[in-house]
Design brief:
The chain is α/β, with parallel strands linked by helices. It has one domain: Alpha-Beta Barrel (TIM Barrel), CATH 3.20.20. The protein contains eleven helices and ten strands. The strands form two sheets. It has an eight-stranded parallel barrel with strand order 3-4-5-6-7-8-9-10, surrounded by six helices. The protein has a two-stranded antiparallel sheet with strand order 1-2. Helix 8 packs across helix 9. The chain starts with 10 loop residues before the first strand and ends in a 5-residue tail after the last helix.
């Protein structure tokens, strides 16, 4: 039975000339538990040494409901300040547009401030990818686009992306942008397959956007499958994982990567060994039969 193609070692980020690994490392828990700069440096090296050059953070990472806003960016900034050579080895992405205690704010003044503050915390002059974290329904996409285009022209950001946007919100913002979107970041996992069937991935392929999948392991639910559905999905992943000598997590990453949209799973672990292990996903082969077996388990019913 023919196998689906393996992902390339590196791929372009959307329509840009930025080359990224087909799997990323996310830092939403980087600043937890008083992690030191030395410990954070070890995690950055774990990703880079495994061939993962795409690192994703956000200004809200580190916020615990009361404080800590910007802590993950600031910690990474310490790492980069201590070893500036690391910056050239990575494609660095961050996000903004959430302003506690408000839900979301993409007014022009706040967006400009958010971008500048992220650069200051990260101790860099330009970020490779800046993403709107969640859509502000009260912001007109034309106003948002103007701020983002200006930031690209000013050399503060290289490229633009969105996270948790609907297909219509993506289309509206991209319509007003001169520097077109290159990424979209929805939640995608073998336990959350909405994107496969609601048009998000089809739109990404049509527009040339690179999908970045947050929570690709279902928020940890794949590791400890409890419901009947979760156990069926886990079993379908295990069939491939065991045959190819990898973990269930690696099989889950590779299942997403087999999709023709070029999904980039974001590893959420803050353990060096788990980050490095993720790179094994580049070598896992899927047949159509095995791939669809996971999808059928996730849907809970046979395909028509």
């Amino acid at each position: 039975m023919s196998e689906l193609p393996l992902p390339p070692a590196f791929r372009a980020l959307g329509g840009s000339d930025i080359m990224v690994s087909p799997i990323a490392w996310g830092m939403w828990r980087l600043a937890e538990n008083g992690r030191s700069a030395a410990e954070a440096t070890r995690l950055v090296h774990a990703a880079l040494d495994a061939g993962i050059n795409f690192l994703d953070t956000a200004d809200i990472y580190g916020f615990d409901g009361q404080g800590g806003f910007g802590d993950a960016e600031a910690l990474l900034g310490e790492v980069l300040a201590a070893d500036p050579a690391l910056r050239s080895r990575m494609v660095l992405a961050t996000k903004g547009g959430i302003l506690p205690p408000l839900p979301y704010d993409q007014s022009a003044d706040y967006l400009r401030t958010a971008i500048d503050n992220s650069l200051r915390r990260l101790k860099i002059d330009m970020v490779d990818l800046w993403q709107i974290h969640r859509p502000d329904i009260l912001a007109h996409p034309q106003e948002v686009a103007r701020v983002l285009d200006d930031a690209v022209s000013a050399g503060k950001i290289r490229s633009i992306g969105v996270s948790n946007f609907t297909v219509h919100q993506i289309a509206a913002l991209d319509h007003f942008l001169s520097h077109k979107l290159v990424t979209t970041q929805p939640e995608i996992s073998p336990l959350r397959i909405t994107c496969f069937e609601n048009g998000e991935l089809d739109q990404a392929m049509m527009m040339g956007l690179t999908p970045m999948a947050w929570s690709p392991l279902g928020g940890g639910r794949l590791a400890a499958a409890e419901t009947a559905r979760d156990r069926l999905v886990a079993a379908a992943l295990d069939a491939v994982a065991e045959a190819q000598g990898v973990s269930r997590s690696v099989a889950a990453y590779s299942w997403l990567m087999a999709h023709p949209a070029g999904i980039i799973p974001i590893i959420g672990s803050q353990q060096a060994e788990r980050i490095a292990e993720g790179a094994q996903a580049l070598k896992v082969r899927w047949t159509r039969q095995d791939w669809y077996a996971v999808l059928v388990a996730a849907r809970g019913e046979q395909l028509p």
